[in-house]
Design goal:
With 368 residues, the chain is of the alpha/beta class. It has two domains: 241 residues, tm_1862 like domain (pyruvate-formate lyase- activating enzyme, Alpha-Beta Horseshoe), CATH 3.80.30; 58 residues, no CATH class. 41% of the residues lie in helices and 23% in strands. The chain is built from 16 helices and 17 strands. The strands form four sheets. A nine-stranded mixed sheet has the order 9-10-8-7-6-5-4-1-11, sandwiched between helices. It has a three-stranded antiparallel sheet with strand order 12-13-14, with no helix packed on it. β5, α3 and β6 form a beta-alpha-beta unit. The longest helix has 17 residues. Bound molecules: iron/sulfur cluster (SF4). Iron/sulfur cluster binds next to loops.
Length: 368
């Protein structure tokens, strides 16, 4: 089995608490409770210390809602993580508008957090209500203005499209409103109704793929016209503001993952932590799996091909000891001929049409 001997440079930290539960959500989360949060932060710190992490280039605190922690617990987590970041590293914290106040912004600044990812989801108050969010677009504007005043430049906002009641006209308005926030990074996801969500139980459905393509094309065109590069299927950034942490996942590199339900990838093995708070507080890991060569190749393509620039062919050869173009000669010829992929010199990437059907293209490559 292939193993890369390299330093792990990224750390993901999961804070599972939220102040309320959104109807579309299938993440690992639970309603904030002070006592549970206190025990959880103690367990989390024990888990972080169990890895002997040293320094990393990126840290990402995600959730759940990291900013739902009270200020003391939040400081406990940040002060544990801050010394682990290399100089010039990227330190991201996800935040919800309702719980990101001035004190928490100042605390984030104090501990070196230099990137915020804020869940906006919609700029229409009635649709925010439909999604089960508790903020308004006016709250978003106030929050981002305050974050900028405190000195945060690198800000991402998340938007959701493709659900009942969300028309092309509303999407166009969402894009205009989001652009008016003037953040250098925008993530836009089409709604997925997962089985664990309240939406699923209520029978809410996703858009069909033809309709979804029309919406996606509008997003791509609008954001490109405003100077954002789509560097990953759902992620758009001004030059220099791509998420370095998320690029770790999309380049299929290894990372530490700590916290309830967190996933990690270390020494050729993927692992998942327990999703039960009770179990996690006693024993973190729930399962792990050694990644075989065949699995590693498939994962490499599934992640790297989400990137607009694809991947450098020598990287594939270095990692797997085989030439990608030789290995999949027939399938690649077909993909290029049908306009789904392109090869230039040392690079292999999917075209706009190819990116839209990435999962089925990869199944074809592996004859599944
Ligand atoms: S979408 Fe975010 S804020 Fe809402 S329940 Fe899920 S993790 Fe919590």
């Amino acid at each position: 089995m292939f193993k890369e001997d390299k330093k792990v440079n990224s750390l993901y930290v999961h804070i599972p608490f939220c102040n309320h539960i959104c109807e579309y959500c299938d993440f690992v989360k639970l309603i904030y409770n002070e006592e549970f949060a206190k025990d959880y932060v103690d367990s989390l710190i024990k888990e972080i210390r169990s890895y002997n992490i040293g320094k990393v280039n990126t840290i990402y605190i995600g959730g759940g809602t990291p900013t739902s922690l009270n200020i003391d617990l939040f400081e406990k987590v940040l002060s544990e993580l801050s010394p682990k970041l290399n100089d010039g590293g990227e330190f991201t914290c996800e935040a919800n508008v309702e719980s990101l106040n001035k004190d928490k912004l100042l605390l984030l600044k104090k501990y070196g957090v230099n990137r915020l990812s804020i869940g906006v989801e919609s700029t229409h108050d009635d649709l925010l209500k439909f999604l089960g969010r508790h903020h308004t677009f006016s709250d978003v504007k106030t929050c981002i203005k305050l974050a900028k005043e405190i000195g945060f430049k690198n800000i991402n906002v998340d938007l959701i499209y493709g659900y009942k009641g969300h028309t092309l006209k509303l999407l166009k308005e969402d894009l205009e409103n989001i652009l008016s926030l003037d953040t250098p990074h925008i993530s836009i996801y089409s709604l997925i109704v997962d089985k664990g969500s309240i939406f699923y139980n209520k029978g809410v459905t996703e858009q069909d793929s033809d309709e979804s393509r029309e919406y996606y094309d509008l997003i791509l065109k609008t954001l490109r016209e405003h100077g954002y590069k789509r560097y990953e299927i759902s992620n758009f950034a001004k030059p220099g503001y791509e998420s370095r942490h998320n690029l770790t996942y999309w380049r299929d590199e290894e990372y530490y993952g700590v916290g309830l339900g967190a996933n990690g990838y270390l020494n050729g093995e993927r692992y998942a932590n327990s999703k039960s708070l009770y179990i996690y507080n006693k024993e973190y890991k729930a399962e792990s799996e050694v990644i075989t060569d065949e699995m590693a190749k498939e994962e490499f393509l599934l992640t790297n091909l989400r990137l607009e620039d694809g991947f450098l062919l020598p990287r594939y050869k270095d990692r797997f000891g085989i030439d990608f173009l030789e290995e999949h000669k027939e399938a690649i010829t077909k993909l290029v001929k049908n306009g789904y992929a392109s090869i230039d010199e040392n690079n292999f990437r999917l075209t706009d049409d190819g990116l839209m059907i990435i999962d089925s293209l990869i199944l074809d490559l592996f004859n599944k």
